[in-house]
Amino acid sequence: MTLPRRRFLRLAAGAVSLPALSRAARAQAYPTRPITMIVPFNAGGPTDIVARVVGEHMSRTLGQQIVIENVVGAGGTTGSTRAMRANPDGYTIELGQIGTHAVAVALYPNLAYKPDVDFAPIGLVVDQAVVIVARKDFPPNDLNEFAAYLKANADKLNMAHSGIGSISHFSGLLLNKVIGAKPTLVPFSGGAPAVNALIGGQVDYMCEPISDIVQQVQAGTIKIYATGMPERNPALPQVPTTKEAGLPEFAISAWYAMFAPKATPKAVLDALSDALDEALDDDMVSKRLSGLGCDIPAKVKRGQRALAALVKNEIARWTPIVRAASNRE
Fold first, then answer.
1. N or C: which end of the chain has fewer CB within 10 A?
2. What share of the chain is helix, strand, coil (3-state, %, to 5)?
3. Which residues contact 164 (CB under 8 A, 6 or more apart)?
4. Can you tell me the mean pLDDT for 235-244?
């Protein structure tokens, strides 16, 4: 049977549009079930806290629960590897950070993933200052005294960190390199047990993201010397920056960001990015994160493209720094 030309063209056009309509329908349907957000560190640590605060709001926006799964090990690279290998359908995402998606490249020669290749960026979540803290009875009174004391007594001192590749680990390496000291490094299974050891006086000092120590500093259970950000943090306005305190070479912040496995559909990524953006714009979310010392990124720093550029730049920046610092330890 021969179809009239006009009817044939209508049918052909409809056939061509079917895949596009199907993709749109799938995107509109997402998500239809709970989403797993892998946090590659222990519950209660800085990465976990950020994930839970933001994930709770995103759950309401997306209409499905975001379930936090803590997958610990190897400085966060175990959980990141699992996230990378997950089905790229938007139902497994990760809250990674500067350690797992930048510094790990230098610390782990056989890293199972390439952060700038094997993940689809969703967006930057927060920045945090990294602070220098010590047990409350540590003798030095300011950062200059701290540096001199550490240099003179390094063989008798120990520095806590929350595992090879963690923020406290590589920022501690940088601090020791800047000062020129080689203390004993004491690893813990996460930020919380490391901070608890510091409170108990079992270790002497450490570097740690600010959200993990704000309450302890306010309670007077630990001593704080400086923050590594360019400006003072509103959560601890009395604490000087390292530049103000005389150690400008120690300039470091810890960023946290959301990723999906490579090949996750763009429409799904867009839905997640939009939900994250709404969470960061929410007054209650902002208040909770700011109270922990976190900085909410400006609009120009949010989104998929900005995060992709950040990861590439941070790998290039930190690889030589961390390798040089590691060689001294």
1. N
2. 50, 20, 30
3. 74, 75, 107, 187
4. 96
Domains of the chain: 34-127+254-326 (3.40.190.150), 129-245 (3.40.190.10)
Q: How many CA atoms lie within 13 A of 14 on its CB side?
A: 6
CA 290 to mean position of chain CA atoms: 15
pTM: 0.84
Cα distances (angstroms) measured from residue 31 to each of 91, 136, 156, 213: 8, 48, 55, 36
Compute the distance between CA of residue 254 and CA of residue 211 in angstroms, rounded to an integer: 11
The residue written with tokens 């959301």 in the block is 258
Residue 241, helix vs strand vs coil: strand
What's the pLDDT score for residue 23?
Answer: 39
Distance CA 251, CA 228 (A): 5
Residue 95 has pLDDT above 50, yes or no: yes
What are the structure tokens assigned to 317, written together?
């920046």
Q: Is the pLDDT of residue 25 over 60?
A: no
Tokens of 72: 């610990």
Band the pLDDT of 14: cuts 50, 70, 90.
low
At 223 the three-state DSSP class reads strand
